[in-house]
Each structure stands twice: as C-alpha cells, then as structure tokens.
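Researcher: Good morning. I'm working through a list of sequences from a screen, and I'd like to move beyond sequence-only analysis. For each chain I'm collecting a predicted structure so we can compare shapes side by side. This is the next one on the list. No need for commentary yet; just the structure.
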Amino acid sequence: MAAARTLAGTPMTGPQGEQAPKLRTVQYIGYGAGDFANNLAFSMASMFLLLYYTDVVGISATTAGTLFLIVRAWDGIGDVLAGRIVDRTSTRWGRYRPYLLFASLPLLLLLVALFSVPGGLSEGNALVYAYLSYALFSFAYGLVNIPYGSLATAMTQDPDERSKLSSARVLATNLVILLLAVVVSPQIANSDDLQRSLTITTLGLVVIGMALYVFTFSTAKERVERAVEKVSLRQAWDTVKQNKPLLRLGLSSVLFLCGMFALETTAIYYARYVLDNAGLYVVLVAVQVVGMLLATLVIPTAVSRIGKRTSYIVGGTVAVLGGVLTALAPGSVPAIAFVGFGILGIGIGAINTLIWALVADTVEYGEWKTGVRAEGATYSVLSLSRKFGQAIGAAAAAYIIGLGGYVSGAAGQSDSAVTAIRIAAGAVPALVTIPAIAVMVTYPLTEKKFRRIVADIAQRHAEPDPDTPRSPRP
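Model: Good morning. Structure tokens for this chain:
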C-alpha cells in the first residue's frame, strides 16, 4: 500500500518519516467554526431547555429529568448507528465533510422545533411532543457531530496539531456559551412572551449556524487520504473492545460530563435563587468562559511539557476545587461564587480540550492494535459515553432540585430547594470528577508511545506488497 497522502498528492507521512505541510491558520479557524455551529444547537439546549420545560411549558423538574435520562441515553445507541454510517461513507468530498453540509440544516431546524412546543396542548401531549422533538434533535446532532469529531483524524496525524485543533473547537464552544448567555439571559429576565422570543432566537441561530457549517466544509480539508475499508460490525466491535485507551477515556468522560452538565443545567437557577439575581447569570457564564479560554490557551504548552494524561489530572483537580467553592459560596457575597465558577471553568476547559485531543490518538491505537481503522466507531463510542454523561448529569440535576422542593415558575424557592441547587451546581461536579481523575491515572497511551504507533502504522502502509495483511499488535 502506498504511503498515506494528502488530497493534493503531497505525502502526509512516509516510511522515512516525511512531514506533511503544517495546517494553516484558516484551517484551525474553519474547524473551530464547525463546533461553534454545533454548539449553537447543543449548548442552547443544555443551558436553557430544562428552564424552558419547567417555566414555560410547565413540565415538572423531576418529569423533565426522566425525559433527559431516557432520550439522551437512548440517543447514545443512535450515535453507534451514526458511527457505522460514517465508517461506510465515501464521496468526492471525503468521508466526513458531506455531513457538515447536508445533515446540518435538519439539526438546526429541529432546534427551532425543540423550543417551540405548541401552546394549548394538554400536559400529556406537550410531554409527547417534548420527547419526540428532543429525540429527533439528539439523533440529528450525533449525525453531524460524529463526523465532525472524526474529521480531525483526517486533517492531520501530528499530535501537537491535533491539540491545537482541539483547542480551536473548545475556544469556539466557550464563545458560543458566552454569546448565548448574553442573548438569552435578558429574554428570561425581561421578556413578556418568552416562547415567542426563544422561537425568534432559534430561527436566527439557523441562519448563523448554516453559514458556519459551510465555512467549515470549505476549509477543513481531509488531508490524510486512505482507501475506504468496509468495516464490519464485528470488526468495529473487536477494534473498540481492544482499545484500552478509548475505554478508559470513555469511562472518565461519563463521570466528568455528569458534573459538567449538572452545572450547566442549573447555572441559571443558581443565579436566580442562590444569588437572588437572574442578571448575574451572564457574569457567572462570563467568568466561567474566561476560565475555559485560559485553559484552552495553556493546554498546548502543557501538553508539550507534561503530556495529555498529566494535564488531564491537573485540570480535574482544579475542577474539584472550583466545585467545592461554588457549593459553599454564600449567596450574599456573589464575588465568591464568581471565583468558584471561574476555577470550575479552568478545570472544565482543560479536560474538554484534552478529551478531543486524546480520542483522536485512540483512533491510531485501534488501527495499530487490530489492523482495522474505524474512526466512526471510535468517535461513536466517545459520543455514546458523552451522551450517558450528559443524560445522567442533566437528569441528576433535575431530580435533585425537584426533590429539593423546586416549584416551577415560582418567584421564590424554599431553603431546601436553594440547597438542592447548590448541590447540583457545585457538589455534584466536584464529587464525580474525583473518580474521573482516578480512571485517567491508568491511561496507557503516552505521547512517546503514540509517536511510535504512528511510525509503525506508516511503515506498515509503506510495505511493497499490497496484499500483506495488517496483523494485530500485542
């Protein structure tokens, strides 16, 4: 098999270790723009959907918690299917880029449907609509996000460049979170017709999102060209189950994301009822985003000095400290809560950046270990773990505040409800991040080992006999 080449014909890597041209700035920006578009949909739902269900539609917090748990957990199975579809895709535009162009509009339109539960429905019918619209939205998101995540492995095999791509997508995510807080928070506090405001807002996000997806499609080229292999379900399963780094990363991600989404789901409640000022939600998000941005900027340097695994452990420890401070911050002194959210932002930003860099490395490990390359299956496993983490985290937050006595739409809440909000926003992220760190202590794929694996794969591809089988590694 010939050495892997770019689409332009320039060698990507070869048996003598030739290096491909470095990614250009526009390619980092284009890749980040894709996650900006993704999070116009995803972060809009994760930040405001529970509040929309409880305070606009009138669904109770515990009922909404069950909805989150069922839909997001079931959608993880849909992600596995999406991964299988991606692994069998081959077009003149590449394997992954077409999904950014053709699956993105349905995703964005389903976002509008998600925040447009028809008025006048009975409680039961409104709940049925919520289940259906959220399930369709979640599947559409997986069909865009899995190929988007897989795209990084086709853009470069250089671990430092992958870290920069990961930083670009996390930077974009942080900017979206801040943008949505600034745009939506005043609507929650001041709008006389929140339903109408949210429908108009989501329609605007459709236009912005499509423009960004087209930009990503145009700039984030698939430079690592490989023959498309028909990967059977059994091969994909064998590749995944032997991929120890991927399985450890997936487990740690489930735990970490439980905390992250418990915080994200309840941050608006924290501002309204712990700090007693809904307007401070923008400040909480802003300081958290600043923390995330700082982490994103520092991570490439940290990775080059201490490696991804150690950086992950350090980031997790910082997140634990931020969660404790957020849970204990007195409502009468908002500045302490701001510091807690900022520290949480640093920890969350570091881990989120590293997850996407680490999963790209596990693709090469899987190919090296089994002789089968299955990017879609690999990313679908991570996506499945993230969906479970999101499901458990958002559901746990809803259950905690519901069992604490939260009353939908009430101007004030009981002391027990406020305490429950503190637990969901601060204590839960701290408690679940501790075992997430413990799992990554045993993560086996170091930078040195990864470089050896890439060199081994390149040598295997350069073997003169095209019929030489690519045997699994011990």
